[in-house]
């Protein structure tokens, strides 16, 4: 067997090839791209016979995605994507001097896959459809997070110079099309006070709001009331920054809606879409995010427990002597944990079994978030069973062992 450490950078890869005794057979710096991959294959071929199995080559690299990784997997090599923190800890075991270089990192990765491959997760090849879902689902979620950040910036700016706007638009949302339209048209207190009922009503109508006359009157009254503020020149400066933030938010709203259509389109092409959509609390967007983060490579998760561990919903136990504590996992996939938390929150509203399990946890004085996390852990196990048997979720079957009365 050959063990290869691949320390990647933006434009090159430092690789080291080791034998099963840990001897360095060859080191090289390869360029990124097709030429670098061809040279990688040539390097490996010098140590393998023509009829050798490519799976005898184990590659360790600090990423699990990208064209380079996909090319390695497609060639038949066994690729292990490791967290940079794991590599850093292994480097500390090998050397206490603190020295670091690209060549030394390649040596560390090769030694790591040679000695600890049983503790590493092998990169499994997801289908092209799953990869496409991952791309659009992550982009969609990233834009939503960006919109939240810009909304908080907008709220902070309004609080500093125009608190009346926050009070006026409280029944709406700062990211709503009508709110952004009115703020862009009148970003200062003086300009907002001059907005007419007709202008406010027109913006509400374009946003398809209900009870427009009452809402327009309330907004106008709040904008014209007396409030503490800033000097006119300071308010004008704030207004310029608010207009810029509003332009960003309007663009984000448009692109989020566009990407949502792409998520729905790609997710709908996956063969397991019906299984995902049958899960309690899981719609198209959450289902696409969960699929994107779990992947669909067969055999990646040996059992429900391994899927739960990857999801970060399974608790961890710390025991020393007589002391024993159970904690939530703090090292996890943030995108997946966020999606599963949202699923659990929706499941207790629409699924009797999920609600009963949640209520049982709350009756034991477990906090809301902790109860949702435990429910999410249970839902991950149900999802694993459904995917394994390609069977849609059945609430009676899922909760029969705990709540037999639900079937009645």
TrEMBL record:
Ranges of residues in domain Transposase IS110-like N-terminal: 4-163
Lineage: superkingdom: Bacteria
Annotated PANTHER family: PUTATIVE TRANSPOSASE FOR IS117-RELATED, TRANSPOSASE FOR INSERTION SEQUENCE ELEMENT IS1111A
Residues annotated as domain Transposase IS116/IS110/IS902 C-terminal: 278-358
NCBIfam families: transpos_IS110
MF GO annotations: DNA binding; transposase activity
Naturally occurring in which organism (per UniProt): Actinocatenispora rupis
An individual GO BP term: DNA transposition
Name assigned to this protein: IS110 family transposase
Pfam families listed in its UniProt record: DEDD_Tnp_IS110 (PF01548), Transposase_20 (PF02371)
Coiled coil stretches, renumbered: none
């Amino acid at each position: 067997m050959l063990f290869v450490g691949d320390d990647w950078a933006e434009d090159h890869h430092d690789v080291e090839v080791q034998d099963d005794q840990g001897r360095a057979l060859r080191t090289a710096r390869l360029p990124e791209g097709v030429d670098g991959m061809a040279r990688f294959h040539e390097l490996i071929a010098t140590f393998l016979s023509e009829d050798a199995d490519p799976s005898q080559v184990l590659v360790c690299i600090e990423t699990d995605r990208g064209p380079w990784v996909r090319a390695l997997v497609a060639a038949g090599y066994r690729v292990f994507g490791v967290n940079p923190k794991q590599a850093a800890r292994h480097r500390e075991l090998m050397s206490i001097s603190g020295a670091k270089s690209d060549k030394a990192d390649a040596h560390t990765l090769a030694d790591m896959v040679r000695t600890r491959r049983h503790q590493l997760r092998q990169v499994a090849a997801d289908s092209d459809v799953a990869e496409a879902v991952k791309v659009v689902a992550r982009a969609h979620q990233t834009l939503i997070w960006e919109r939240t950040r810009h909304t908080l910036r907008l709220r902070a700016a309004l609080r500093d110079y125009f608190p009346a706007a926050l009070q006026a638009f409280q029944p709406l949302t700062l990211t709503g099309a009508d709110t952004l339209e009115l703020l862009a048209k009148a970003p200062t207190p003086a300009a907002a006070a001059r907005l007419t009922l007709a202008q406010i009503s027109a913006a509400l109508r374009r946003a398809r709001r209900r009870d427009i006359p009452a809402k327009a009157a309330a907004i106008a009254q709040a904008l014209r009331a007396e409030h503490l503020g800033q000097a006119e020149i300071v308010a004008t400066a704030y207004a310029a920054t608010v207009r810029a933030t509003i332009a960003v938010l309007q663009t984000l709203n448009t692109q989020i809606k566009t990407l949502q259509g792409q998520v729905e389109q790609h997710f709908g092409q996956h063969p397991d879409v019906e299984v995902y959509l049958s899960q309690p609390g899981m719609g198209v967007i959450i289902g696409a995010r969960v699929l994107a983060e779990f992947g669909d490579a067969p055999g990646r998760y040996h059992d429900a427990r391994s899927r739960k561990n990857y999801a970060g919903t399974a608790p961890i136990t710390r025991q020393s002597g007589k002391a024993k504590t159970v904690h939530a996992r703090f090292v996890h996939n943030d995108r997946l944990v966020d999606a599963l938390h949202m699923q659990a929150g929706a499941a207790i509203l629409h699924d009797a079994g999920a609600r009963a399990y949640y209520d049982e946890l709350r009756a034991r004085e477990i906090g809301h978030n902790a109860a949702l996390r435990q429910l999410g852990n249970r839902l991950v196990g149900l999802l694993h069973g459904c995917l394994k048997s390609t069977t849609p979720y059945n609430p009676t079957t899922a909760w029969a062992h705990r709540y037999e009365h639900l079937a009645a």
